[in-house]
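In this supplementary section we document a worked example of the pipeline. Step one takes a protein sequence of length 181 as its only input; no multiple sequence alignment statistics are reported here. Step two produces a three-dimensional model, which step three serialises into structure tokens for compact storage. The input and output of this example are shown verbatim.
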Amino acid sequence: MLTWFVRLLAGVTILPLVVLAGVVLCGTSYRRLVADLVRRGGLGAAGLAESAGAALAYGASHAHPNFEGLPMSLPARVRTVAFVVGEAVFYGTFAIVLWFGWKLLAIFGDETMTSLPAVPLSLVQAIVPLGAALIVIARLLVTPGNWARVKAGTDLESQEIAAEIERARSSMAQAGFDTRT
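The serialised model returned by step three reads:
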């Protein structure tokens, strides 16, 4: 269920970085050969902002290294309360970022980027509420699985290690090695 969203976020993260790299290479080449491209700085900033928001959302989907061992070693009741408080702080923080990011867009009105007059400033700054929304969506998709792990007292790393050990044993058994240990 989560795989499609993680892949979408990975694509949304990588695409602006590829475009940004193209802008930098084009601007650098153009500067060496002809003259400086004044507008590449504005494009670079916009691309970087877009990729940063998508990367944060990708990270919120827990597709990154994390350290669940300590909370999972706590007693069940403390672990559950810590999880609920942590999730409330997380969602509350990003709800505030989304709300004020949305309000910020109205402040810009008809302003445009200095280096790219055809690009409205609100388009570039839209990454703030959009990024916050993506982060919340990503977290909502992983929260049920995280809740199940908290209730069971198992962490994601231990599950992944156990799955890899089982995969290695299966592979060794197929190759004819004795895996009874």
